[in-house]
Write a structure and sequence with these properties.
The protein has helices at 2-12, 15-33, 38-50, 55-80, 91-100, 104-137, 142-158, 163-177, 203-221, 240-245, 247-261, 267-282, 295-311, 313-319, 325-336, 345-348, 350-378, 386-405, 408-426, 431-455, 465-478, 480-494, and strands at 180-181, 188-189. By secondary structure, it is mainly α. It has a two-stranded antiparallel sheet.
Length: 495
């Protein structure tokens, strides 16, 4: 192992490979920061360029873009309440309030530190235990995946300030996710006879509309567009005390991201939500509550998503099973160069594998360095007049929505959900929970149907120890407001 890793670092010391790593990091950060693009589109566009590269360089380019783009989306999430990619949705919840408090630099600094540590942590585990950690994924079947998805919705819904509106937001998101043809039995749902809805709604145009376009509509409604930028912020980066205050959060979320990322198909999007949800269930600081501008609320999702992004390489390399959309693209890059991921890859191409491990580690170090170098540049966007900034955001959002499927239908969907997002933000509904419902809806539905086919009845789900425990915890969180009210009533009667 150590010889292979040393050979990998030695290879990466060559200028061409360093250039590939830096180029991948820069491209990833840019694509991640533009709403609607993100890591999947960035990786897809770069695949043709890898055909003429040697295998290590081509794989490192796509891997670098993926890891960097997962972090890049946090910048617009924090500065403008617009996640650059689905992997950064929960970062908006506390990141944007910090910007409104003039603490954009602190929020960005914590996001950089959390992302880098999460990625580095998973990189180390990737090196020393990729083949062993994959055994964790064997514990997860259809029941466990369904329960894990339900848990993500249950925690963030049950602990919300407005339980009813959070529940409605989640229900609408799940409902939107099941529009179109069922992937299990081909049944048509809510298509209303139109071909446009056969494949359902893509959640990226909805996310862009609800966040980016909805924010533009809010600015227009408040007549802020013609006013000069009045954002006040200081360039104070997180101090040592603030960094220490989030170290537990980063540790927990990095571990969670590692576990979620190692599960085939789960990926960084689910880790982002679960990281924030877990922090929401643990966090006790009433002076700086989550959702109001807490550094912990930025650290949790960012550590989890970057840790998960790296961990998705575990099922890809150990079993040849993609851990997410980008690793599915990366699987194609491997195959183009005549490489077949799986247990034999560690024997036939050991140097290449450890070069990839070393490259992912270096990419996360580059993010830590380049992230702090660009803070002064990126925060300058807050000084751009809103009459220029928000029309530019609208243009990029439109391009991003169109580029998903090269379809004007997605642009129409984006505009429609821009209005819906505007209404939700103005009336206290959660856009983040709606998007969460859309992301987790298909995972919940498909695995629930598979579990019912296999186990016949939901009661039989409880025979699966891990699945039963996760389902029990999900129900508790989902009904927590009711349970909490009953407990208070009983205590009140005793007094």
């Amino acid at each position: 192992m150590f010889q292979g890793l040393w050979a990998g670092f030695t290879l990466l010391s060559e200028p061409i490979y360093l250039f590939v790593l830096i180029a991948g990091s820069v491209i990833g950060i840019v694509f991640g920061a533009i709403p609607g693009l993100g890591p999947v589109i960035a990786a897809s566009l770069l695949v043709p360029f890898t055909y003429t590269m040697d295998p290590a360089a081509g794989i490192l380019l796509v891997a670098g873009v993926y890891v960097a783009a997962t972090f890049g989306g946090s910048q617009t999430a924090i500065l403008f309440n617009i996640p650059g990619a689905p992997e950064n949705t929960c970062t908006t919840i506390d990141g944007f309030p910090l910007t409104k408090q003039g603490k954009a630099a602190k929020a960005l600094g914590i996001a950089i530190i959390a992302s880098a540590i999460g990625g580095i942590f998973s990189s180390i585990i990737l090196v020393i235990g990729s083949t062993q950690l994959i055994k964790i994924s064997y514990l997860f079947g259809s029941v466990e995946y369904f329960a894990l998805s339900l848990l993500g919705i249950a925690i963030i819904t049950g602990l919300s300030d407005n339980y009813l509106k959070a529940l409605i937001s989640a229900a609408v998101g799940v409902l939107l996710s099941i529009v179109g043809m069922s992937s299990i039995d081909g049944t048509m749902r809510f298509t209303f006879g139109t071909d446009f809805l056969l494949n359902g709604f893509d959640f990226i145009p909805i996310m862009i509309g609800a966040y980016a376009v909805g924010e533009v509509f809010i600015q227009v409604h408040k007549k802020e567009m013609l006013k000069p930028s009045s954002e006040k912020f200081n360039m104070s980066l997180p101090n040592w005390k603030e960094i220490k205050s989030v170290r537990g959060t980063i540790a927990r979320s990095s571990l969670l991201g590692l576990i979620v990322g190692a599960l085939p198909g789960a990926g960084a999007v689910l880790a982002n939500y679960l990281g924030y949800s877990m922090e929401e269930s643990i966090y006790k600081n009433t002076d700086k509550p989550l959702g109001k501008g807490s550094l912990n609320g930025v650290a949790a999702p960012e550590a989890a998503n970057n840790s998960a992004a790296v961990a998705t390489f575990i099922p890809l390399l150990a079993l040849g099973i993609p851990g997410g959309a980008v690793t599915a693209i990366l699987l194609g890059v491997f195959e183009v160069h005549g490489l077949q991921p799986g247990p034999t890859l560690f024997i036939t191409s050991e140097t290449m594998v450890y070069t990839l491990f070393a490259g992912i580690f270096i990419i996360n170090l580059l993010l830590l360095i380049s992230g702090f170098l660009e803070i002064r540049v990126i925060t300058k966007l807050l000084k751009v007049p809103k009459g220029i900034l928000y029309p530019a955001i609208f243009i990029f959002a439109t391009l991003g929505a169109y580029s998903v499927n090269n379809s004007m239908f997605d642009v129409v969907v984006m505009l429609l959900f821009g209005l819906i997002g505007f209404y939700m933000k103005e009336n206290g509904y959660s856009v983040a929970i709606l998007v969460l419902g859309m992301v987790l809806g298909p995972i919940m539905e498909n695995n629930l149907l598979r579990a019912l086919i296999k186990y016949k009845s939901p009661i039989n789900f409880l025979n699966k120890p891990l699945g039963g425990v996760l389902l029990g915890i999900s129900i508790i969180f989902l009904l927590w407001p009711v349970i909490n009210k009953i407990i208070r009533t009983v205590r009140g009667n005793k007094i």
